[in-house]
Amino acid sequence: MSGEIESGAVLELKPVGDREIPSDGAHVMSNATVEDDTPRLDYYDEKEDEDDVRWIKSHVQNKCQHHKYMQPLHTRSKLDDKVIGLNPMCTCGNLRSQHESTDVFGEFQFDNDDNQLARFMKTDDVELLPQLLARSQRRWNSPRKLISIVGGDHNILMSNQSKEILRHGFTDIAEKYERNICFVTNGVNTTINRLVGESCKNMNLLTGWNGYNKLTPVIGVVPWSNVPNKDQLIDREGKWQFKYSQIYDKNSMNLETNHTDFFFVDDDNEYRVALEREYSIGILLVIRGGTEAFLFIEEAIRNGLRIVFIMGFGGVADIVAQVLPLTRDGERQSLLKTLIERGTCLGISCCGEELQRIMNAVENIIIHKQSVAVYDLSSDRSQDFGRFLLYQIEESRYAPGTIKHESPNTGDLRIIEEMRDAIVGGKNSVAIELLESGRYDVNYLQDKDNNFGQRMAKLLSSNNYECLDTFFNNGLKGNQFLSLRVLEDCYKAEGVNVHMLEDTWTEVIDSLKGLGYRWPFLKGSAVDDKMINLEHLFVWSVVFRRHEIAMLIWAELDEPVAAALAVNKIQQLIISIKRIKDTEVLNKYEQYSNEFTDLGIEVIDACYENKIAKYNLRRKLRNWKDQSCLIMASETDNKRFISRIACQEYIRSIWWRNDDLRYSKYSVSIQFVFYRIRKSRIDICEIEVREKEGERKREK
């Protein structure tokens, strides 16, 4: 059976239980090819869809009218005794399993630029949460890290500069971890939630996401009472590809359209606490925040999460930020009492028992200040927000009270040995089968394998692209295995001692330093793992013509545009030093250089379409000695890149002084840029003339 969709294309309907839902493009049985760029769960097959619906109907129940359960489990919190677990028996006298199944679940289709889809479900059973996450993580690749946002209940008045700092900080984190991190918010369309959603969307656009297949999950835990026109979502068979515009209400608080999943609950605090408990690595980010934030803060401390307070917007965050530096108890308590009584930060004055409750909660935070960090958007280091968050996330690995490094069990050891034998023996098919079957969980087992880095070095040095590609497709991140020893082994496989390169490759090293490349193996300097980053491995792959591997590593870089621009310079140096004359080899080098330039252009064009090109052109590149992409393009004389509309508009903006660089933290030297670009502009004009002449000839 088939039905017509709005675009006029024919879409097959598949039976699920007693209903029919549209299948994705992969399952269309028609002979006609249908072009449909709407995101779909392309890697989900029909059986998994059917299984999801059956599981929801049989496991997820509505709460009955009694709303309470016998002998609830408690948090034992000093602040509030919240229920975190539900017993099988309900006060109505029936088992919970006998309650009616949920009648609110399905998939939203938002009316934004790319018609993004988002799964939704109404549920309150926190005991089911691990199973719900496990099923959802088939789409998310099982993220093990968390950023939970508290304080997003209302819009916050903030400057464009502050928004840019936060947005790009979140984008940096999303780029760093991709599907290995999960954002949790209250799901409504407020300032901070929009910044999180837009950041993840931008990252997904720049990395070529395909529906849910390559996605940073953003989960909204939304009070059911806050959902406008919610009656339209009720359907025993679920609502699939449901147009969100049908329930949108301009006079209500609506959902943020870049989230990937929504859980509608009666008690959002209870559910959020339970959700955060599923993650042991991550941060709780508090921006403003009312007194309800204390519940999340105490649970975060107990669970070993780091707590980051964003200062400058009032609320609990500003109270903690102001009293945290004070070491004298009397001085701190006096200021704390004044802030609460006057309502300076919270917006309301408190006294009596409420005053004492808040003071006790803040003092509890002070006691655990080793788990607390404050970020001031007005400080000079505001530009490093992404790096700041990254540091806090990594620090949460070692938070007290959490088990971060368990010993591998017998089953894990057996799988690790199988992978070792496959890699050492060159059995690609065995290694790939272990990964694709899910038996070898990269993000879980690589921490338990003491020799994981050496195995990756073996794949790199043997140019085993096929196996490496499978590792990356199954969640491997370059920074998870890279170390000083791995880099040394890669160079050693080419017969090169990295510690002697500064003598033998003086011209190459000096030229790369001129580009801003940080060569770590300097004479007389100690080197450790902290000094090694993926840019060093990328340069190795380019120098030794590991082109396919270079492409894999490039996709993992923090600063991919800069690296793409550097390729041409590196290859020209190699050609010069080795005095390469062979036409075929030279053509290969040119082909590789053009491919990376194309990648850099694709990224900057995507940035331009999403209005973030200027930031990416001018921001300081920490891995390239604080240069910028625009300067690197001029240094490498990359006319094709400079001719892009994003670069040209930015150059004109500088020329006409529309860009005030005096206060920019990502400043670019105007004189330097125009000195380097003056000749390139002439060549760019020639390129444009030749392109137009070619178009006229083709028309004739």
UniProtKB/TrEMBL annotation:
Q: How does the protein associate with the membrane?
A: Multi-pass membrane protein
> Which domain of life, per UniProt?
Eukaryota
Question: Which residue numbers delimit the TRPM SLOG domain?
Answer: 121-329
Q: Where is this region: Disordered?
A: 1-34
* Principal subcellular localization: membrane
Known InterPro entries for this protein? TRPM, TRPM-like, TRPM_SLOG
One example of the protein's molecular function in GO is: ligand-gated calcium channel activity
Location within or outside the cell: Membrane
Which ranges carry the TRPM-like domain?
533-643
Keywords of the record, alphabetical order, are:
Ion channel, Ion transport, Membrane, Transmembrane, Transmembrane helix, Transport
Q: Name one GO cellular component term.
A: plasma membrane
The protein's name is: TRPM SLOG domain-containing protein
- Species of origin reads Patella caerulea (Rayed Mediterranean limpet)
